[in-house]
Amino acid sequence: MSQTVSKRPSFLSLFEVSATETFHTMCGCLLKKSMASFGPDTCVLSGVIGLSGQARGSVVLHVEDKVALGVASKMLGEPITELGEDAMDTVAELANMVAGCAKAKIQNLDLSISLPNVITGNGQNVTISSRVDPETITLESPWGLVVIDLVLEIN
Amino acid sequence: MVRVLVADDSNTMRKIIIRSLLAVGVREEDIAQAADGDEAVALFSPGAFELVLTDWNMPGKTGIEVITEIRKTDESVPIIMITTEAERQRVLQAIQAGVTDYLVKPFEADQLRAKLDKHGCCTT
Predict the structure, then answer these.
(1) B38: how many CB neighbours lie within 10 A of its CB?
(2) What angle do CA A68, A69, A71 make, to 5 degrees?
(3) What ipTM was reported for this prediction?
(4) By CB distance 3.0 to 4.6 Å, which of A49, A90, A132, B9 could disulfide with A99?
């Protein structure tokens, strides 16, 4: 019986560490690994960052709406109760910080990151167009789920 | 009186920075905001600000280009880069452009306050 062994290096753990550091520093909270997943009706905000350099790909940070509101309230120091500009912009900045923090940990790839975009929808299912399958990790924050999708292909 | 220019395309980050500026005694009317690099360059003139805080990755001119433009007319105003760009090469690039100080995102409020204090921003 043959077994396929992937030779593609995985950088997902670096993005997990970066997300943990970002949430801890900016919100004073811890993230824990989770086996849960978004429900079909869960409102999700997704911050999308393009990666280029000696590798190329994307990282997408998906958060439940209540995570976006909780983090925005914490970071801005005032209650944010609507999914408006503050919540959207906070998710964009979170994605930016997670991607930036991770790329600093893999300096040999000389990565550049794009400006973030944010997509909202129910039970978010953002598809990354790539020759390789995305790696995914789900984390639990005090407000709800945080999911990271990563595609990073060495040139 | 300390006048400060804050350039960051993230409204959230500008609010965080401005909250820290207000906390150290900078008056709201002495803070100018730019949402991109072009706006930052347009707002800047020599003698108009005692401190500039700029992001790196912004629409229009990048933070590096903002610093380069400012340094053409003002060699002394302190410029703090606040960015996710943490790699050594990036920091060196910013130093070559003329940055005065550097703060990597994510950061804690105390780290920003220490930078503001270091560059004469704390009036309380």
Answers:
(1) 17
(2) 65
(3) 0.92
(4) A49
- Amino acid letter, residue A68: A
Inter-residue contact A139 to A31 (CB < 8 Å): yes
Contact A75/B16, CB-based, under 8 Å? Answer: yes
**Residue appearing with tokens 């350099």:** A53
A-to-B residue pairs, Cβ atoms closer than 8 angstroms: 60
Give A22's contacts in chain B (Cβ within 8 Å): 106
| Contacts of residue A61, Cβ cutoff 8 Å, sequence gap at least 6 | A19, A46, A47, A49, A91, A94, A95, A98, A146, A147, A148
pLDDT (tens digit per residue) in B67-85: 999 999 999 999 999 999 9
- Answer whether A113 sits within 8 Å of B12, measured CB to CB: no
Q: For A6-26, write each residue's pLDDT tens digit.
A: 556 689 999 999 999 999 999
The CA distance from A103 to A65, in Å, is 26
- Helix pair B11-23, A85-103: axis angle to 10 deg: 90
How far is A71 from A73, CA to CA, in rounded Å?
Answer: 5
- Residues of A at the B interface, defined by Cβ within 8 angstroms: 21-22, 25-26, 72, 75-77, 85-86, 89-90, 92-93, 96-97, 99-101, 103-104, 107, 110, 113, 115
CA distance A72 to chain B (A): 8
Residue B58 distance to chain A (closest CA, Å): 7
Give the up-direction half-sphere exposure of residue A97: CA atoms within 13 A in the CB hemisphere: 26
Alpha carbon B70 to its chain's center: 12
